[in-house]
Write a structure and sequence with these properties.
CATH topology of the largest domain in chain A: Rossmann fold
Structural class of chain A: alpha/beta
Order of helices and strands of chain A: EHEHEHEHEHEEEEHEHHEE
Strand content of chain A: 15-25%
Radius of gyration of chain B: 47 Å
CATH superfamily of the largest domain in chain A: Response regulator
Strand order of the largest sheet of chain A: 2-1-3-4-5
Order of helices and strands of chain B: HEEEEEHHHEHEEHEEHHEE
Number of helices of chain B: 8
Strand order of the largest sheet of chain B: 1-2-5-4-3
Number of strands of chain B: 12
CATH class of the largest domain in chain B: Alpha Beta
Oligomer: heterodimer
């Protein structure tokens, strides 16, 4: 998958590009709206990561341009302005997702994967981990064909860990993924620990959860060979 | 009571007082009118009599010398006329009320006394009209007056109601414009058509005010957006750099933990900026209020999310829904945050074995959500600053930014929800959310 990163903060653009390259994505970077406009007109991208706060360009206009040029790219809007209308307008114009700064790089990558699953019908409907099978479309977990009864939040946690297998997810990253930005102020590292503890307990009733590893002082990791 | 009814009622009251006063003086007034009228008639009859005398002389009235009195009255004794020779020398010309005995009946008359001389003989002319006949006309006059006045009152009241309605149409339009616009931006600025200058001034002044508020809102929004951008961009860069370090496989465990600690500090900074921005955005009305939700569902969702935390510390969350209430024109995620913060606080401040109770009820048409606990309570000296930013309890934990209740307050204000707090230190606290009456 190739992506165009439109971000005027060079330092941030480089970090995003470096992370995504690590995930085997091909990345172009545009630091100005003009540059981006030209690149969108010339190249075909699977993804455009668009920062709306460009000094020289109305970010939302780039979405219009891309659509007009017949670009099939999925667009993920990034903004630090965080105004409510920006989100609504962006999605109205045909953006596929919206992310407020500062976001976790792993969250960005997860969104890219989610949009890819939705938009390009990448089939990942069944993921297995240990003795468990996760049906992403149906949002169900089964173990030896019997359904595991877990809460919505527990499922969200499990799916996030499993889709980002073999990566350490920090508590903050997990918290933000599940509770979003509105409850930033209520963040409590204990929160995730309690949810993971309950999830483990529930899953242990069916099979071993040795694959769900606690990384001391940092977070959690789903280890899959 | 609206202006139109007030105007009509005030006018009616004024007219009633005026009419009442008129009715009180009416007997006296009509009596005076009647007397003048009667006196005029008596004088007219006198003139008529003298015309008759100048035509036929006085003799026909005086049959002989022996009978020197002429008298005549009609059947019902309402009027009489009499002429007699008299010894009076001075000339009489006056009208008085006297009693006369006629055929054994004493009757009160208004009588004109007049003396005149014919052929050297002095005569006294008396023309009388009975007072009972006078009061009969008086009664009629009164009746007509009363009927007329009542008719006048009713007609003028109805007329005023109709007239003021037409007159006040522009004002009603202006009032409706204010009521229906939830935000200065959505205020209908189309001028109201009216020839009343007060209304055009009111209308245009309101529009100008709305424009001004709107401009200020936009400016504040611009400022928050810029601050937001300026503050969050560096946080974003730092975060990305740290996270990229975190995924490096050759990182030592010690460096890993240090990096995570830096990320936690960054999260606090981010939470702080986002919380302040949330308050600024709520206070400048940047959120839409177009959700319709069932409050009990919202509360159930919140408690479902917080239940694991409560269970972890051995707390019981009790839901007591006395009423199901669907509320319109609200922002669902803001309301979620508002209740969530208070429920989360209650859980944090209640020791093992305690209970957090959430109730919905309707008291005197007002919908109320109350969240109470039997936890540590709030010290009296902290009650006043409870909703102020950064005024957090002097506890040694480092959790939260101390801005949660300030967020709750600003969201409540945004939705016109009143918050009442009662707390006894050591016994527990109760937060009541009073929704605006519909």
């Amino acid at each position: 998958m190739n992506a165009l990163i439109v971000e005027d903060e060079k330092s941030l653009a480089n970090e995003i590009a470096s992370y995504l390259k690590n995930e085997k994505m091909i990345c172009d970077v545009a630091h100005t709206g003009m540059e981006a406009s030209e690149m969108i007109a010339v190249n075909q991208y699977d993804f455009i990561l668009l920062d709306l706060g460009l000094p020289d360009y109305e970010g939302l206009d780039l979405i219009k341009e891309a659509k007009k040029a017949g670009s099939q790219a999925a667009i993920i809007v990034i903004t630090a302005r965080g105004a409510v209308e920006d989100k609504v307008k962006g999605l109205d114009l045909g953006a596929d997702d919206y992310l407020a700064k500062p976001f976790a790089l792993i969250e960005l990558y997860s969104r890219i994967q989610a949009v890819a699953r939705r938009k390009f019908q990448v089939n990942t409907s069944d993921v297995t981990i240990g003795d468990f099978a996760i049906d992403i479309n149906a949002r169900k977990v089964t173990c030896n064909n019997s359904e595991v009864d877990i809460t919505r939040k527990q499922y969200d946690l499990l799916q996030y860990l499993v889709l980002n297998k073999n990566k350490v997810l920090t508590r903050i990253q997990l918290y933000e993924h599940i509770w979003g930005n509105m409850l930033d102020d209520q963040y409590d590292s204990n929160f995730i620990d309690v949810h993971i503890k309950n999830l483990r307990k529930k899953l242990n009733e069916y099979a071993s959860t040795d694959w769900l590893v606690t990384v001391r002082g940092v977070g959690y990791k789903a280890v899959i060979d | 009571m609206n202006l139109r009814l007030k105007l009509a009622l005030t006018n009616l009251l004024f007219k009633l007082v005026f009419t009442g006063l008129f009715l009180v003086i009416l007997p006296y007034l009509s009596e005076r009118i009647n007397l003048y009228q009667t006196d005029d008639e008596l004088i007219e009859k006198r003139e008529h009599f003298f015309n008759l005398i100048s035509e036929v002389g006085i003799e026909p009235f005086l049959f002989s010398d022996s009978i020197n009195v002429f008298g005549s009255y009609n059947i019902l004794k309402e009027e009489f006329i009499s002429i007699e020779k008299t010894d009076i020398v001075e000339s009489w010309n006056f009208i008085e009320v006297t009693h006369r005995l006629i055929e054994g009946e004493v009757i009160e008359y208004r009588v004109l006394n007049y003396t005149f001389r014919v052929d050297g003989v002095m005569y006294l002319l008396e023309i009388g009209k009975s007072l009972s006949s006078i009061s009969a006309t008086e009664k009629n006059i009164k009746r007509i007056f009363v009927i007329f006045l009542i008719a006048f009152l009713i007609i003028s009241f109805v007329f005023e109601l109709i007239y003021t309605r037409t007159l006040l149409v522009p004002l009603n339009i202006i009032v409706r414009k204010i009521k229906t616009s939830s935000h200065p931006t959505s205020y209908n600025r189309q001028p109201v058509k009216t020839s009343t200058t007060d209304f055009t001034t009111l209308d245009s002044t309101l529009s100008e005010l709305m424009d001004k508020i709107d401009r200020l809102f936009k400016k504040e929004k611009e400022i928050t957006e810029n601050i937001s951008h300026e503050l969050l961009t560096p946080v974003s860069i730092l975060r990305s750099k740290l996270e990229n370090m975190l995924v490096q496989e050759d990182l030592s465990e010690n460096a890993l933990i240090k990096t995570e600690e830096a990320l936690i500090t960054l999260q606090r900074l981010k939470a702080l900026v986002n919380s302040l921005l949330l308050i600024a955005r709520v206070e400048s009305s940047q959120y839409l209020k177009n959700d319709t939700i069932e409050i009990n569902n919202l509360i159930t969702n919140i408690t479902e999310e917080l239940k694991p935390m409560a269970e972890e510390v051995g707390l019981n969350i009790q839901l007591n829904f006395r009423i199901h209430k669907t509320i319109e024109h609200i922002n669902q995620s803001l309301l979620f945050t508002m209740f969530y913060n208070v429920v989360n606080n209650a859980i944090k401040n209640t020791p093992t074995g305690g209970t957090v109770t959430i109730e919905t009820a309707c008291i005197k048409k007002q919908f109320i959500v109350s969240i109470s606990d039997n936890g540590t309570g709030i010290p009296v000296n902290e009650m006043e600053s409870l909703f102020l930013r950064f005024k957090k309890k002097k506890t040694n934990d480092n959790k939260g930014t101390g801005i949660g209740l300030a967020i709750t307050k600003s969201i409540a204000d945004f939705h016109n929800i009143q918050i009442k707090v009662e707390s006894i230190e050591g016994k527990g606290s109760a937060f009541e959310f009073l929704f605006p009456e519909e």
